[in-house]
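Suppose you are handed a protein chain with no further information: no name, no annotation, nothing but its sequence. What can you learn? This example shows the usual starting point.
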Amino acid sequence: MKAALLTLILAAAAPAANAAEADHYSLSAAQVGDVTQEVNKLANEGLEAAVYDLNSGGACDDSKESEERLYERLTDVFSNHKKGQLVRTILEGDIPRTVIPLKASVYSEWSMWNGFLLGRRGAGKSPLALFPLIKIGDTIIGADKLEHMFGMGLRYFKKHYLEQRPLVGVLKGGIFKEKTFLGGNALATGVFSYADLAANFNGMRFWNHMLQKRDDVLGPQHNAGPYLVCRDGKWARNAEKPLDFRVYVDATMQESTNCSKFATAGGLKKFKEALAQMQARDKSRSFGCPADPGLLENVTGSSTATATNAFPTSTNSRREGLCSGYKMEGSARHPFIRAADPLIVYQNYTSCQDPFWTCIKNII
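A reasonable first move is to predict its three-dimensional structure. Written in structure tokens, the prediction is:
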């Protein structure tokens, strides 16, 4: 009861624009264009503009205040669609993107009882009901994953690195938000996305690499920065290390690989039926989830990845996911991989499991 009441309050208080989904099934990979070059170009130009503005406003130094001013200016480029230049440019079509109308998507039969924000009347008229798809390197993602990287990723980064909070609590906070107003309950979209959590985590790494004052959470061998340096009181780009989003966008951020779970049994049933209909029309590719289990194994570097019972035999439980048998154990590469038990997060960061209230009661 307490969990349901808390979810209701938070979902009602949160802006609807914070929750969005993407459809990785309706179109083939060949129908989504590679925009790596365009995204990287815009990102690095954004860094250059930020450096110019900050240097025009005063000197930089090694203080926390100077560092925080830098991050605040960078959110003009790297933020959500309301503020961030990069995501806004993608949504407006100035960078090629692939749009799937809600009524032509895997969520076409969604009702408000499956997830209010996707199923409400008029949801299909919103350009934000489903975020467009883009391809970075070899990976197709919803543009919403960039919002997660920039927004929740920055939140993770500040709390863990600047405020020195334990990483376990920071990651649990992200799970809590994903379970409430960022999607994973029937008052939001009804979709709990492990790919969103992966994007949050890689976003924390993205922001840490900006100045690279601290080693990457996965180990110093994954250090990609610094992209910017403070030199003689002036910010400057590191010409030897341009920003490249292929460092951050991987298969863990792809919902057809890192499978979601659903808030209602009805939502799960409709999702499975939509995939079955797609499979009946197109035998040339797989519409299960994970579509390619080997992709996650490649990303994590784990030899213990196994895919079994890809679809659950029962749909009675609200906490049941699409691929409840998919399990990635002991990953040394990434902590947010879809697991057999709904909210298990690996790499010993947390062992937060359902029921939901058991999971969040130590956070709030």
